[in-house]
Amino acid sequence: MKLKEKLTLPSRHFASDNYAGICPEAWDALAEANRNHAPGYGDDKWTTQAADLIRDLFETKCEVFFVFNGTAANSLSLASTCQSYHSILCHRLAHVENDECGAPEFFSNGTKVLLLDGPDGKLTPEEITRAVRRRTDIHFPKARSVSVTQATECGTVYAPDELAAIGRATRRLGLKLHMDGARFANAIAHLNVKPKEVTWKAGVDVLCFGATKNGSSLGEAVVFFNRAMAQEFDYRCKQAGQLASKMRFLSAPWVGMLHGGAWLRHAAHANRMAALLHEKLRALPPVKILFPRQANAVFAELPQEVIAGLRARGWKFYTFIGESGCRFMCSWDTTASDVDGFAADIAALLAGTMKSPRTKLRRVSSRQSN
Prior knowledge:
CATH architecture of the largest domain: 3-Layer(aba) Sandwich
Strand order of the largest sheet: 1-7-6-5-4-2-3
Order of helices and strands: HHEHEHHEHEHEHEEHHHEEHEH
Structural class: alpha/beta
Oligomer: single chain
Strand content: 5-15%
Largest sheet: 7 strands, mixed
Distance between the termini: 29 Å
């Protein structure tokens, strides 16, 4: 499709909340941490304060470690739950399976990741139980841990009762429960519950608490509610290259975001922008919404011509789930004007393609990390 006028390329996109910059609260904390010298390797006041704020947030004693990214957080924490002859159960769409380049297996010395099904990206106690009991002989890796994603890779959110049921099942089966919380803040904003209700009170042993997608510069927190599992985790971090010499630059953004509740405000805003986009797309035939909109993502099926037209106009987004399925991710800095402009371009392109009798949905197979 040729555009007659010169287009102004969008400055914000819907590909990933990783695209967004650093939120003001995290930026200010970084600037403050940069003013003077401070001890290295986590012996600074910023790291201590950030860990204490996380403990206050979850209202319990827990062990907190800061690492550079989500791959390290997930892989190292999962490795702490099992031995090489064990297996990790997760949803077939889980990030730990599809987007970690085998890191969970690598850092656990070969632990096997077994894939389970479940509606809208969620595991169920029944599916977990079936997977554990399917084989218990010595020739098959023994199930030892379960990994759930909150919010899921489909943008859905586990409710407290769903997680509590999974927690009961894992304890009954002698398993550890790991939570990939890259978008944990968005899940809490949707549920409007205290974080403890969907973590340690539901049976979660270890949480990978994400900040990068919520407005930080980099750095995730590994939170062990099962404190015995944290034994020598600092050595795992060091060996894996995750012990930052200037640790305050990983932990200071947490102080800025947690103090005063910016972490939750930004997540709630991203969710509202996704809800706005969801409503606009629902009104546009033949757009098909693929999953319930609960966190800060909208999954929709569009004609291939529309996908190509949006990219020609400069919009960036991922296409990796479903037939002609697109993921549109909103961020802490997404504006209503961004949503309006994006939806208007979709509507205009749909109007053009509907005139063509050849228009039909085609399978999209490209895969990108989140």
